[in-house]
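Sequence in, structure out. Go.
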Amino acid sequence: MGERLAHVVRLIANEPARADDGVGVAGILRRLCSAAGRSLSASGVGVSVMSTDGMRGIAATSDPKVAHFEELQFTLGEGPCLEAFSTRRPVLVPDLADGATRRWPSYTPAVHDHGLRAVFAFPLQIGAARLGVLDVFRREPGLLSDVELRRALIFADVAVTTLLDGQEQATPGSAAAGLDDAMGNRAELFQAQGMVAVRLGVSLTDALARLRAHAFAENRRLGDVARDVVARRLQFDSDQS
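Output:
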């Protein structure tokens, strides 16, 4: 295990920095995602930070296109990331055409249309604490090999350590360096959810469903829709879908 961990750490350390890398933890996680993508023969890798109170945000992705697959899960309220987080267990789907539509009836056809054929989600957790999920996407169906599976679990462990180290160095009450936007967007979503609930006289759950439906129909990020609601650029009426 020590040699395998050292190998993964070297892969991340040797990953070239990019001009668009975020600062602090976000930059490290971006390099982790890129290194994991190559090491696991993946078309993309993403890390999302999550909490049990519903806070969710994309921390880093190997490629900007992967952010769409991550965000789509939050918009639709279903997918491997959410399942891995709630069950505390890896979600391994080597072929999205084999029964995945029953698990995620909206998410599966959406990502399948974008060419994804397999997805593997690994919860980021230590003890009772859950921090988020590492998602691995592939454009070809097939299982992870035993070596790839062990390596994916190590990448997940390194992501946990990175998040914990970053939070330890952060000012009490604030997010780790580079994760402000990821968590701030979710706080904005909660505010928008409350505003829609009050305006329409519905529950918070129904308000979130309205926000998600609008984001999906307009092909927009859920966070962007929430931002427009908070800024009062977008209002929901009772007869509006």
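Check: The radius of gyration is 18 Å. The chain has two domains: 2-169, 180-230.
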